[in-house]
Every structure is written in C-alpha cells, then in structure tokens.
Amino acid sequence: MAVSFMHRIIGPRVESDELAQHKLRYRTPGVLLLFARVLLLVSLFLPYWHMELQAPQYPSGLHMTAYINSLAGDVAEIDGLNHYIGMRSLQEAAALERTIGVYMMIACVILIELASFVHSRWAVLLTLPVVFFPLVFLLDLHLWMRHFGLNLDPAAPLSSSIKPFVPTALGEGGIGQFRTIASMGAGLWLAIAASVTIIVALYFHRRAYLPLVRARASAAAS
Amino acid sequence: MLIKRGHTRRETPRRALLVTAIGLIAALAGQTSAQSMRDVEAVAKERGLSTADLMAAAKTFMPSGELDEYLMFASGGHAGQVFVVGLPSMRLLRSIAVFTPESWQGWGFGVGNEILEEGFPNDKANLWGDTHHPALSETAGDYDGQFLFINDKINARVAVIDLRDWETKQIVKNPLTLSDHGGTFVTPNTEYVIEGGQYAVPWGSKYVPISEYKEEYHGSVTLWKFDRDRGRIDESKSFAIELPPYWQDLSDAGKLASDGYLFMNSLNTELATGGIQDGKPPFEAGASRNATDFMHIIDWHKAEKVYQAGKVEQIEGFPVITLATAIEEGLLHVTPEPRSPHGVDVAPKGDFIVVSGKLDPHVTIYSMQKIKDAISSRSFSGRDPYGIPILDFDSVVETQIELGLGPLHTQFGPDGYAYTSLYLDSAVARWTMGGSYGAGTPEPDWTLVNKTPVHYNVGHIAVAEGDTVSPDGRYLVSLNKWAVDRFIQTGPLLPQNLQLLDIADQGTTMPVIYDSPMGVGEPHYAQIIKADKLNSWAVYPQVGWDPQTQNIDPMAPKPGMERVQRNSDGSVDIFMTAIRSHFNPEHIYLKQGDKVRWRITNTERALDATHGFAVPMYNITASLEPGESVVIEFVADTPGTFPFYCSEFCSALHLEMMGYLMVEPN
User: What ipTM score was computed for the predicted complex, to two decimals?
Assistant: First the structure.
C-alpha cells in the first residue's frame, strides 16, 4: 500500500527509448527547475529590498538595504532618527526571518531539487513555497512595517507631533521632512524570476508527464 | 562687448575668454530662470563693476555646493592657531587650535590640556602661541597631505597636526631657546622638522647680562626627527646644532640638487645688543649696520652622522653639535648675503637658492653647484668671528636681479617664473629664472617681468605648491599686513588682507581677483596644497575613537554600558554616551572633592553630527565629533547644581540635550 502511494507521488518513470526519442520534452522541466535553483542561490548574495530616505539635511539621502539575512546601510542613523518618533530599532524587525532565512532558502532549493524527480502533480506542491516566496517576503515586510509604524513608543520625544502610521513597503511614502522611496532589490527580482521559471517549468512538466500518468491510469483501469 | 566700463586689455584671447565666461554665466543663469546677460549688465552698471571685476568674480565665485580646488594652510600669528582657506573662493573654512585654547573646538578646556601642557616652557600655563610658518609633510619634496607642522615663535615650540582629523597631536618645547623663526620646514621626505632659533639667548634662557652677549648667548637650529608611523616627533632621536648669536631667520631645506643641505638667513651678524635707553643704537639700527649678513649652509646629512656618532654635548639635556664640532666636521659654512634678509627659498630643482635682501632692492640667487664647488675647493674669503669658513660671495652667486624695494619672500611657478613679495613697494614681482628654467618663459632669463600692486605691505606670498619640487602655479596669495581702506571700518583693529592673484597667464598679466579679510589672526606664511592630496576623515573611523592614539579607546563608553562608577580609590569614572538628542546618564551625583574622569563617546556616524559638552563653573567645554571619545579629568571642588548641555546645535531637540551635575557639599 505504502509502496504504491509512493509510486503515485513520484509518478511514472520514463522508458529509456522514449527518453531517447523525446529528449527535449523530458529534459526541459528539469533544466528549468535547475535554473530556478541557481537563481535562488545567487539571490542570497544580493539585496532584496532598498529604502531611500530623502531630507534637506541629507543631500545624498539615507539608504537601507535588506538582504535575506542582514540589514545594511545607514541603519544606525535611521534608528537614531526613529527614536524621536518612538519606533523600535530596525535590528529588532524580522529578526527570526533574518536568522533562518538562508536555511529556509536552502530547504526550498532542496524541495525544488526533489520536485525535479517527481513526475506527478505532487511536484506542484513541492514548488509552492518558492513560487509564493516573493509574495510572502513582501507581505512579511509590510506586516513588520505596519507593526513598527503603528506601535510607536508614546513616551518618545515627538510622539505628540507624529501619529502612528504605516510606512510604505514599496513605492513612495513620507514622514516628517523625509520622503521615503522603497523598491525591490536584485535578489527579490531573481526570486520572482525563479517563481516564473518554476511556473513555466511546471507547464512543461505537465506536458511531458501528464500523458504518462494518464496512460498508467488507463492501463490500471483496464 | 556688453559692458563698456572697465579696463579690459584689448587682447583677442582675453576678449574671447571674457566673452566665453560671460556667455557661460548667461547660459547658467538662463538655465534656472529667465535672467539674461542684460540683467547681469544692469547689475554690473548699478554696482559700477568693470569687465575685469566680472572676470574676477567668474574666476572666484563658488556656487553653493561647489568645492574649492586648493586648500591653504595659513599660520595664525599671535592667535596661536592655523587657518584653513579654500582657493579660489578664499573662504575661511576653519581654524585648527594649536597653542592657544579655543572653545569651539574644545581645545584646552578639558580636552587637549595634556598636549598644551607638554609645551609649557615652565610650570606657568603659557596659553598662547605665535605661529609663523606652517610646513606640510613631504614625500620626495612634494606635499603628501598627511601632516602639518607649525612653529611658535614666542616660546620656541613645534606642533604636529594630523591631517586625517585636523587636530593637534603634539607640542614639543625646545629646551635650548625661547625664540624660533626659522621653522618649520621639512626635509624632502620629512625625515626632520627644522626649527631655527631667532633671538639669541643663553642656553635654556638662563640669566646672563647682555654684556656677555658674544660669549654666552647662542643661536641654534634644531632637527626634530619625525616618526611618520607614530605621527609624532621623536624627541629621543632629535638634535641641535649650535650657531653664533646672529639671529638666524627664515630657513629652507634643500631638495634634489641641494638635497642634504639647510639654508638659514641671519639678521644680526653685527652682534648688536641694543640699549636705546643708554643712548646706544637701538637694535633696528645696530643690527642693520653691516652691508651683509650671513646665509648659513648646513650639511644635515653630515650633521646626522656626527650626531649618530655621539659627537655631541648634552646641553639642557638635549644633544647639541657644538659650533667647534660643526666647524671641525665641515658641516657648517656661511656666505655673505644682502643685509637683514628675510626669505631664503630653494628653487624647485634645488639648484638655486634665492635670498631677499629686505633692505636691498635685489634678490640674490646662489648656485648650488657653485656652493658645492666652493666647499670642496675650500674657496673661503675668510672666517667669521666664531671661526666658521666664509664662502667667497662672488664665487657662489649666480646673479642678482633688481626687483624693487623691500623684497621679502620668493615662491615658484611651474613654468620658470619666480614671484617675490616687495614689502615697501606693496607689490608682487614676477621674474624669470635662468638655467634649465629659462626655456619655460618667453622673456629673457633672470629679468623682472611685471609687478602687481597689492594692498598693502605684503609679507609672505604663497603660490599653489610653490615651494615644492613641482609647483602648480595658477594662484598666488599675497598675505598683506595692512588692509587700510580695503574693508569697511571695523574699529581701530583692522583685519589682515589676503589677496588672491591669478597667475595662470604668462607675461605681465597677474591681476588681483579677490580680497579676503582675516579678522581672526595674523597669518604670516601659508602653504597651498591641491585639495585631493588630503585623505581627511569625514567621521572618526569607528565609534569610541581616541584622537590622541588614533585608535579605539578600550575604555570608551559604549551604548548600553553607561554608568557612574565609584572606584575603590575614591575616584569616579563616568561612562557617558552622546547621541541626538540626549546624554546618558543625565543625572550625575558627585561628592565635593571627588576626582572625576568623565568619559564621553559621541556614538553618531552621520556626517557633521558633532555634539558639544559644556559644564558651567568648571571651565569645561569639549567638541565631540562623530565617533570621538574623550576623557575630561577634574576635581569636583565646587559644590552645587550644574546644568551641563550640548553646546553644538545638533538637532531639533538640541536644547533638550542636557543633564544635571549635582555636587553634594561636604
């Protein structure tokens, strides 16, 4: 029973003469999934998100960059300014996500690795975390910013003049004399490219293996 | 030409340049508004500006945010500081406190006190200086932008400024004398910082009646060894050479062709001792009696070997090569020079030495080759009263050029021109060099080309990198002693007038293009360095930086570790941080008589986020630049309640950046 369940999950194997005849058809999904994995691994080294703060007294602006596992740029200066409005230190934001981010990403890469051996619809399930990863990242970012912006220390120096607000996770926003410009970084773009690549891979996956699955099902039925 | 007034020369290239400049102004103005050249003309007409005036403005005006190309480090005279001016805008950028406490920089009010104390000539707090001659550190005879040295004439001291953070790091007191003027100058790789004494005194300035002047009063030159890695003068490797009490004056170090030599003027070879109160000739007459004084020629390579061989006498605890040893070792010669000279300036290739006679209308140009030949062939015209061999004047002089009245100091351009200030003529002279420089100028060799009037009584001049092996030329600053009518009245004390001359063109054109009042001190000499040669820090490299060690202070207060710590010996350590807009801690309780070490770290990393720290009644003020950590030591001897605060406007809540020091009475 368990063996046949595993069989159903892994899906049909391709006969060697069939593989030889239709190399492109069966190789395409695997190659695309490999490409997605490379994109994700490269993205680990690239910034996922930028925020620029512009104000008259900072002629070259303040810059903050989020990587999967760290924050870089003028974090200390932004924290210093944020204390006036009672915002917590940025280092406290998404601390868990930044601690486990790299491991989660490696786990995702392994899931895709596995998916390339699965020739059934279950492959979709294995790729889902990666496909939705960019969305989850942005949602998490938004929720943190919302949480930080709405939970200002009421005893802060400027709490009487700056009301709680939700900082913008993407696009332009403003607070006090600052104009903020938040944008996606190269890493996030690569993760999105990985998602798209996976969706395309799944299309070719379905085109290659669905006939085999159906053939096996009809053989089993007859 | 749009503007009819003025005295623009009818030379086509200049007209073309002017049209271009005005066109440029019009184009730039047109970009931002509807202003046109017509409006510029209207303003010029209303203000009575000539084309030359507009040209000068176009060459010097710095639009907001544009940066100067050169930095001029000028001495501050009896302000005891250094002033830094940007060129061509001539804007005073900042001062650097050296020998005189300065409260904006928090120098000498809790911070820097140990350095000031290092330089006290005795146990009295001598809290001012008379800075004359700044010297930028050099590598291969060219400014390297790392350090600046400056002398103090009043107490014979030399200070070292680190140009990473523009702060004074060291003051050394010369133990032999109380007067220096022949410094500071550096040898081509800053091996030594030279400090030549001026008014002769008995060793250590001990009491000796002036009747014993000839025997007991001495001149000297001190070679301070510079340790570049430590950024400090190494007093243990420094030495002096005894000289006759001739009032040695300005000096310069040889380079290239004259590498290894020092040249020093003197102004009282008459050994005049004054005495106007007794009806004797005053110094001004007595010291000017002879037609010539002596230029000293010192072989410092040889002197270094003599010192290292231990052929020195310890005087006032300092190694001195005595006059007898210097003569015996052949490292000291003199040669006649026109009387009471001021500047002795070595040409870029080191092959000529230019002496200005002050009371003689000529500059006298000595040839290094001829000097070397005279030394090796022992072509002496005699010996001075102390036995120093005198090189025959005629055998070492290349030529003399009549420039005008009161020649003082010479600087050099890149193209074979030399420039000399004429004090009495109130002018700057341009003249051509000969020898291998001659090809650079269209005029014949060794001739006066032009004089530009300056306002008034010019002392030193400074050409961009004009005393290095590769002068830049282009700009010349005339450091004028008197301003007279150049500025609006400022009471009976008038500012100095630093005038900028454009010397980019060859020939007779070198107009004054800017007047810059210096109402903060009296700059004597200045050096002008290309700004991109400096590697200044924008903020201190790390939080907790100790500018004295140029490293992290392990005891620097850290965020989260702020505290008041009462030690077992009864002393108190305060660990405080400063960040916009609070000190932490804000309440400090002390007991009367507590010995306090108040440590503060400015934890800011933002450019310009400087905090001040000021305590009333305790005479304490500090400037805490981003990252800097300081320690202020004092005894809490005055009981009371003291609001301390940030004295540098740091933020919107700057006024709230304060705390209370409460000293409980016994």
Answer: 0.78
